[in-house]
Amino acid sequence: MTDLTTKISAFLEPQMLLSILDFQANNSDFQKNDVLKQKLEVLKTTHLLELRNQVHKQLNSKDLPNLKELQKELSSQKKDWDIKFEKISKFIQNPNTLQQIKQNPIAFKQSIDPSILTDLYDYALFQYSVGEYKVTSEALYHYRILSNDTKQIFSSLWGKIASEILLKNWDVAFEDLYILKDLLDSSSEDQKVLVHNRSWLLHWSLVIFFNHPKGKDAFLDLCLLPNYLNAIQTVCPWILRYVTAAMIMSSKKYRYQLKDLIVILSQEIHQYCDPLINLIQSLAINFDFNEAIKNLKDCVEFVKKDYYLVKDSEPLLESCRVYFFEHYCRIHQTVTLDNLAKLLILPSKNMESWVNKAVQETRLEVRISKGSVERVFTSHTVFRQIQDKTKPLNQKSQQIINAIEKKSGVECA
After folding, report:
1. How far is CA 334 from the centre of its chain?
2. 272-325 pLDDT, tens digit each
3. CA 358, CA 364: separation in Å to the nearest integer?
4. 3-class secondary structure for the chain?
5. Helices 32-43 and 49-60 meet at what angle, rounded to 10?
6. In what order do the strands lie in the sheet with 366-369?
7. Other residues' Cβ atoms within 10 Å of the Cβ of residue 217
8. Among residues 17, 113, 100, which one has the least CA distance to residue 25?
9. Calpha distance 250→216 (Å, rounded)
10. Can you tell me the distance from the alpha carbon of 380 to that of 365, in angstroms, rounded to the nearest whole number?
11. pTM for the model
12. Tens of pLDDT along 70-106?
């Protein structure tokens, strides 16, 4: 199983699916018309009338049969909401509103006419459905400030994050996602509901974190938390593809956790696997390099068809090759540069410089001699071995301290 569109789509808002379907139309094994039909079905749940008509024309070479009626109805709804929002806007922009919120927020929120808040929330939903995501974000921001309905505040935060994602405001979406995470962590909801909500948050985090400069490390921090790891293993094991990819590409501080991840991958292999996970398994557990070569070739193809991984396909494949090289050299005493190039699906021309770079990353003790890579065997002192074994403890301790600080809001000494 390499295409996860069907599984992931169950955890995304319809509008968030549109960019994935556009990608699939040009980069997947699906027929373009089949993807367009699915896109049309998604658009039927929205008020994106122009786009819906455009897709309908691509499929049928003509406009929607009831286009004029739909346009008239939508125009009427927009006018109605514009009139309603005048009253809401006056209330929000009134200087006394902000002043009273600052002075006595609880009492003021209780005094607000519930119909104003209901209209504000419904107005945001309508604006979202017509693709006015900036307006939606601002409306839901004000709703969260003015409302004291915990359930609706929670729902409005989901809506705001969806709007920021569709606006590609990754920094704001990043911050809002952590606000949502904190709400979930402090929630007293039933565990089934929490697992369900965490599963949704994980899928939305894919969109944010794989587009944010610091996203992959943050994604790993989130996924490796016990509650979220439980959600992955229980509801959505396919997220392990992205955990594996992020960890393979991650900075050195996460590399020590790769062994823990490999254990999890082994436990979940009966529920989910793909070429990337199979590659890790064949190298780290089975030491089956023939199988690993096959998996590496499959990875070259499948990462280019994955919506979330395609932007990082080159660094991901490079990290996979380095991982392959590291394990191969630990087992084999010598390998020619030409053979190594064939194994890694690389041109043999610049293999020597590639090996030198890989050695720096892995700190393998090898040397290049007469067109071959040779393993250098050295004995380490007991002191050095203890150092290597205990090196990850500092990082683990720091993660525990960070978690405690975030939970308590107090900086530890």
Report:
1. 40
2. 999 999 999 999 998 999 999 999 999 998 898 999 999 999 999 999 999 999
3. 8
4. CCCCHHHHHCCCCHHHHHHHHHHHHHHCCCCHHHHHHHHHHHHCCCCCHHHHHHHHHHHHCCCCCCHHHHHHHHHHHHHHHHHHHHHHHHHHHCHHHHHHHHHCHHHHHHHCCHHHHHHHHHHHHHHHHCCCHHHHHHHHHHHHHHCCCHHHHHHHHHHHHHHHHHHCCHHHHHHHHHHHHHHHHCCCCCHHHHHHHHHHHHHHHHHHHCCCCCHHHHHHHHHCCHHHHHHHHHCCHHHHHHHHHHHHHCCHHHHHHHHHHHHHHHHHCCCCCCHHHHHHHHHHCCCCHHHHHHHHHHHHHHHHHCCCCHHHHHHHHHHHHHHHHHHHHHHCCEEEHHHHHHHCCCCHHHHHHHHHHHHHHHCCCEEEECCEEEECCCCCCHHHHHHHHHHHHHHHHHHHHHHHHHHHCCCCC
5. 150
6. 334-336, 372-375, 366-369
7. 18
8. 17
9. 7
10. 12
11. 0.85
12. 999 999 999 999 888 888 888 777 777 767 766 666 7
Please state, in angstroms and rounded to a whole number, the distance separating the CA atoms of residues 144 and 117. Answer: 10
Our CA angle for 337, 338, 340, nearest 5°, is 60
Query: Can you read off the two tokens belonging to residue 174?
Result: 């990043």
From 14, 49, 52, 48, select the one nearest 36 (Cα to Cα). 52
